[in-house]
UniProtKB/TrEMBL annotation:
<feature type="binding site">
    <location>
        <position position="181"/>
    </location>
    <ligand>
        <name>UTP</name>
    </ligand>
</feature>
<dbReference type="Pfam" id="PF01704">
    <property type="entry name" value="UDPGP"/>
</dbReference>
<dbReference type="InterPro" id="IPR029044">
    <property type="entry name" value="Nucleotide-diphossugar_trans"/>
</dbReference>
<feature type="binding site">
    <location>
        <position position="359"/>
    </location>
    <ligand>
        <name>UTP</name>
    </ligand>
</feature>
<feature type="binding site">
    <location>
        <position position="212"/>
    </location>
    <ligand>
        <name>UTP</name>
    </ligand>
</feature>
<keyword id="KW-0548">Nucleotidyltransferase</keyword>
<dbReference type="InterPro" id="IPR016267">
    <property type="entry name" value="UDPGP_trans"/>
</dbReference>
<dbReference type="GO" id="GO:0003983">
    <property type="term" value="F:UTP:glucose-1-phosphate uridylyltransferase activity"/>
</dbReference>
<comment type="similarity">
    <text>Belongs to the UDPGP type 1 family.</text>
</comment>
<keyword id="KW-0808">Transferase</keyword>
<dbReference type="GO" id="GO:0006011">
    <property type="term" value="P:UDP-alpha-D-glucose metabolic process"/>
</dbReference>
<feature type="binding site">
    <location>
        <position position="182"/>
    </location>
    <ligand>
        <name>substrate</name>
    </ligand>
</feature>
<feature type="binding site">
    <location>
        <position position="153"/>
    </location>
    <ligand>
        <name>UTP</name>
    </ligand>
</feature>
<dbReference type="InterPro" id="IPR002618">
    <property type="entry name" value="UDPGP_fam"/>
</dbReference>
<protein>
    <recommendedName>
        <fullName>UTP--glucose-1-phosphate uridylyltransferase</fullName>
        <ecNumber>2.7.7.9</ecNumber>
    </recommendedName>
</protein>
<feature type="binding site">
    <location>
        <position position="88"/>
    </location>
    <ligand>
        <name>UTP</name>
    </ligand>
</feature>
Length: 480
């Protein structure tokens, strides 16, 4: 017997969720119950070989386009995977400044540079809205007072893994809901009335990016290219490196030569080697997207009020803190997957300066280090790194949570500008008096944290039996 969507519809309507979000979720639900695994087999796709490079754009920037452009940051993530219980964007990333501090300063700087009030929006979730609005009201009241600053992400029911009926969690009903992924952007634009309002006010272009990607600011050269090509949708991609091999990639669907996005959750186990082959699948989606709002409206109207996106299925438990609780599936969509919905959609290659996200403590450690410096409120790779960021591999069992990383680096972060690769296994204490150079491996098999020695460290070091203790209680100086 095929599971019915009606229990989900009833639950969502009772919660007051917009019809656009209900329709979008019904589309992914139907894909689930039809037996669609959401997988994209290697045999059905081809690599993408060449894309236009933004660094080679030569057209004169057209500042008149700014009056028709809105900048939107996705800000729905809590960062629970890193041990956070508030908006991830409030995490300090450089000195005392958080993602939202730097984003706000980028917006203010952008308006100053271009001499006009470029429209700025946030898409918050039910988990991040209060923290985010309080932050802006306290630190950036002028931005907080602007009309239409916030647009809310929707929520969808978690589904029983066996019956596909809405899951229940009497001890905490909030656990019965989950975010629908950033593909919800399109349903949220419709359901909130914001899409129609933006079109009515003369906005034609939207630049969207994640709040944890500080490299993604409005680029007038790319906007000019986007407008000149009359493209409905442009995805910014970067060339994959070893650090990116486990993330999604751009590819071409063989049956219709359509650009599509394959996320890691869409890759069958037997195709994992090809998925991670960065010489074959060279480009990944930065989640920096440019969307023609009028073309988006056409697609949504054509499909009855939503945009049909490929399903991503995640297996979880209804209570994320209780592995013995009801097994559920969470259905998500990715906003980049919309590239397959727009006729004439394309992609471009951008430099790594436009991609500096924080997904794990490895990323945060690197961003906080001297391997990245700030330029116009954006993190850019330190020239001393010679164009290649160090590859960081912190012990995933010891440093999954931000608190553990901060304990390890409370005396400062070692210099990484001359480091090629850093691997740490076990608990350690680091300081700003250490410089990692070349390939470095640190191992500690004892249960107690051991101090990494001061000075230049290279090669392999086993600290298990080390007795080194810092002599100077003030470890604030930075080597190099």
């Amino acid at each position: 017997m095929v599971a019915s969507f009606e229990p989900c519809r009833t639950k969502m309507e009772k919660e007051g969720i917009a019809s656009s979000a209900v329709s979008a979720f019904e589309s992914t639900f139907k894909a689930l119950v039809s037996g669609d695994s959401g997988m994209i087999a290697e045999s059905t796709i081809s690599p993408v070989y060449d894309l236009a490079k933004s660094e080679e754009f030569t057209a004169k920037p057209d500042t008149s386009l700014l009056a028709k452009t809105v900048v939107l940051k996705l800000n729905g993530g809590l960062g629970t995977g890193m041990g956070l219980d508030k908006a991830k964007s409030l995490l300090q990333v450089k000195g005392e400044e958080s993602f939202l501090d730097l984003t706000a300063k980028q917006v203010i700087q952008m308006r100053k540079d271009y001499g006009m009030k470029v429209k700025f929006m946030l898409m918050n979730s039910f988990s991040t809205s209060a923290d985010t609005l309080q932050f802006f009201q306290t630190k950036y009241p002028d931005l907080a007072a602007e009309d239409g600053l916030e647009m809310m992400q929707n929520k969808v029911p978690k589904l029983d893994a066996t019956t596909f009926e809405p899951a229940t969690c009497p001890s905490n009903p909030d656990n019965e809901w989950c975010p629908p992924g950033h593909g919800d952007l399109y349903a949220a634009l419709v359901g909130s009335g914001r899409l129609d309002a933006l079109l009515k006010d003369g906005f034609q272009y939207m630049f969207v990016s994640n709040s944890d990607n500080l490299g993604a600011s409005l680029d007038l050269d790319i906007l000019t290219y986007f407008a000149s090509k009359d493209a409905p949708f442009v995805m910014e991609c970067c060339e994959r490196t070893e650090n990116d091999k486990k993330g999604g990639h751009l590819c071409m669907r063989k049956k219709d030569n359509q650009l599509i996005l394959r996320e890691s959750a869409m890759c069958p186990d037997e195709d994992e080697a090809s998925f991670q082959d960065i010489s074959k699948h060279r480009f990944f989606n930065t989640n920096n997207l440019w969307v023609r709002l009028d073309k988006l409206k056409e697609i949504i109207d054509k499909n009855g009020g939503f945009i049909p996106l490929p399903m991503i299925k995640n297996k979880k438990t209804v209570d994320p803190k209780d592995d013995s609780s009801q097994k559920v599936v969470q259905l998500e969509t990715a906003m980049g997957a919309a590239i397959e919905c727009f006729d004439g959609a394309t992609a471009i290659v951008v430099p790594r300066t436009r991609f500096a996200p924080v997904k794990k403590c490895n990323d945060l450690f690197l961003l906080r280090s001297d391997a990245y410096i700030m330029k116009n409120h954006k993190p850019v790779l330190n020239p001393l790194c010679n164009g290649v960021a160090p590859v960081i591999s912190l012990d995933s069992k010891k440093y999954k949570m931000v608190g553990a990383l901060e304990d390890a680096t409370e005396d400062g972060i070692p210099s990484l500008v001359k480091c090629k690769r850093l691997t740490i296994k076990g608990l350690v204490k680091m300081s700003g008096k250490t410089a990692f150079v070349g390939d470095v491996s640190i191992v500690n098999n004892s249960p107690d944290a051991k101090y990494v020695p001061f000075g230049i460290i290279s090669g392999e070091h086993d600290l298990t039996n080390s007795t080194f203790q810092p002599v100077d209680p003030c470890l604030k100086c930075v080597i190099l």
